[in-house]
Structures are given as C-alpha cells and as structure tokens.
Amino acid sequence: MRIERKILTRKQILLGRYSAQFWVLAAFLALVFLIGGGSRNDIQSLVILRPASILVFAFGLWTLSREHLNAYRWVFGMAAAIMILTALHLVPLPPAMWEALSGRGLLVEIDHAAGIGGVWRPLAMVPTGAWNAFFSLFAPLSVLVLGVQLDADERFRFLPLLLGIGLLSGSIGLLQILGAPDGPLYFYRVTNEGSAVGLFANRNHAAVFLACLFPLLAIFGWVNAETIERRRFRSWMSGILGGFILMLILVTGSRAGVVVAALGLVSVPLLYQPPQITLPARRKGAPRTKFTFIYGAFGIVALGVLTALFSRAEALKRLTAPDQLDDRRFQIWGPTLDAIWKY
Fold first, then answer.
1. Integer Cα distance of 105 and 340 in angstroms
2. Do residues 253 and 320 lie in contact, with contact meaning Cβ atoms separated by under 8 Å?
3. Is residue 274 helix, strand or coil?
4. Rounded Cα distance, 29 and 199, in Å
C-alpha cells in the first residue's frame, strides 16, 4: 500500500493556523484605514466602507457565541446602549411631543407661519447627521464582535499590523509636510492642508492614533518572546520605533496628540513584564536591564529635542502659544455645555 505524503505550503499553513474571523478582521482594518480616514457624510469612499461595515458586522454576529457574550457582557452592554441611544434620535415623534421639547420654539413658530402642522420629526435636530453617526457605529462594532472571538495568539498577531499602519500613516505625513500643502498625498478634500495628517483627514485623529501605539509597542517588545535574542531585538525595535513615532506626533501640529502621547508614554512602564525565559549569564561589563529604560528614555527625549530644534515641532508651538484661550475650540465649550443642558 502506497502512502502519499501531503506537503502543505506556507499559505495553507497560515490559513489553517488562524481563524476566519482573524482574516476578515485583518482585511476590514486595512480597508478602514485605507478609505475611512474621515467621518464627514460627504466623503465618497464611505459609500464603500459603510456597507462593508454592515456586512462584516453581520458576519461577526453570525459567528458570535453565547460564551463570547458572557465573557464580555459589560462591553457589549455599553455598545448596545450607545447603539440604542443613537437610534432613538432617529425615531419620529408625535408633533405634540416634539413641540414640547426644549429649544423647538422657533421651529414651531415657523411651522405655524407657513401653515405646516402635524409633522412627525425625530429627536435629532439634524437627521442627516444622526444617520451618519448611526451608520458610523458599525465599524467599531464590527471590530468588537470579531475581536472578542480571537484567541490570545491571534490578538497578538494584530500588533505588527497596527504598528505597520501607524508607521505608514506617519511616513505619509512626513511626505505631506515636505510637499505642497494641496499636494496629491492629501487624500481628502476637507483636511488640514500643510499638516501631517497621514491616512486621515484631521491631524488630531492622526496624532492620537500614533500616540495610541506607545502601549502597543510596549506589549510587542515584552510579551511572547520565546528567546532572549528575540526579546532584545523587539525591545530595541520598540524603542527606536517609539522615538520615530514621537517625532511624527510633534510634526503633526496636534496639541491633543501631545497630551495623549504623554499618557501613552506614562503607561509604558506600567505594562512592563519580566522575561519568562531563562536568561543567559550576563557577560562582564554588559549593561544592566534597568539601564535599558534609561537609554530608551534618553533617546526618545533626544529625538524630541532635535525635532524642536529643527523647527518642525508644530504641536509644541501650538501648545505653548500665548493665545490659547482665544482658540474657538476653547470658547465653544460654554455654549456647548449650555446646549447639552437645554436640549
């Protein structure tokens, strides 16, 4: 009897090693960052992203089990509450109930003057904006329902993907500030021209995403390193990439990015995990582990200082500007809080 040996290709091994949820989520994240860098309802690429988000969400619900729901019931409860609250703003209300709501007096007078009566209107003052907000929720919900179904190894494999997307976005941002303010590397019509926005339409979104990579770099450098050589390599790579990301955040000109980056850097020591491997004997004269943190911190600070000296740290300039209180984003908080209380 002849026994045939089946030789598996690398592609077959990878497809069999990871679940369908892993590959669907990886493809969906790539699509989101490729065409979903903005949330305005007039962005043409959302015509593709929004239906894709609903389909991916449906696939995630189809494969979701009761065990996943029980394990993350608080997260799913919060997501359901957000979804229901947004949907309630789209439900048409009886005219008497709608007219009794605060802040509708002027519209009621216009209706009476125009002879319009008995119109059922939703709670949202701008229904098109509410619909845009509702459909935008399907993207994070899709990531949630698929992400909870991944095991620890699959979730760890997403770190290189997210780090790679962040570095790609930051590198595009560097090319953007080196080129023309209205150059072809700006992918959205309404954007911060002349700023490093990368794959996004807004520099704040780009900078905050980069700042969120600091904890991911810490996990990537210290977790799941089977050998001491791999741990050292990942630690050094994480430190180098962290310095590069800090430089990218400074050149975006985003004050929010600087604040979130500070929080991200503070979280790095809290995520430290001692090695779970047998370390070889330290050679004479080799630096101790604690000095690695000192060298890494010194390198990051040095890169930040160099960036500031080369006058590219736009975020620090805007953060230390003397006219902070004159910014409309600070002045609008008063009317915003008043509107929240009134409506």
1. 17
2. no
3. coil
4. 13
Report pLDDT digits (tens) over 125-183.
Answer: 888 999 999 999 999 999 999 999 999 889 989 999 999 999 999 889 888 888 888 88
Rounded to whole angstroms, the Cα distance separating 196 from 141 reads 28
Please list, in sequence order, all residues whose beta carbon lies within 8 angstroms of the beta carbon of residue 123, skipping any fewer than 6 positions away. 88, 89, 90, 91, 93, 98, 101
CA–CA–CA angle 49, 167, 133 (5° rounding): 30
Q: What is the structure's pLDDT at 96?
A: 84
Cα 180 from Cα 214, distance rounded (Å) = 30
Closest CA to 211 of 159, 254, 246: 246
The ranges assigned to domains in the chain are 17-89+124-150, 90-123, 152-276+290-343
pTM over 0.85, yes/no: no
Alpha carbon 282 to its chain's center = 40
| CA dihedral of 277, 283, 285, 288, whole degrees rounded to 10 | 10
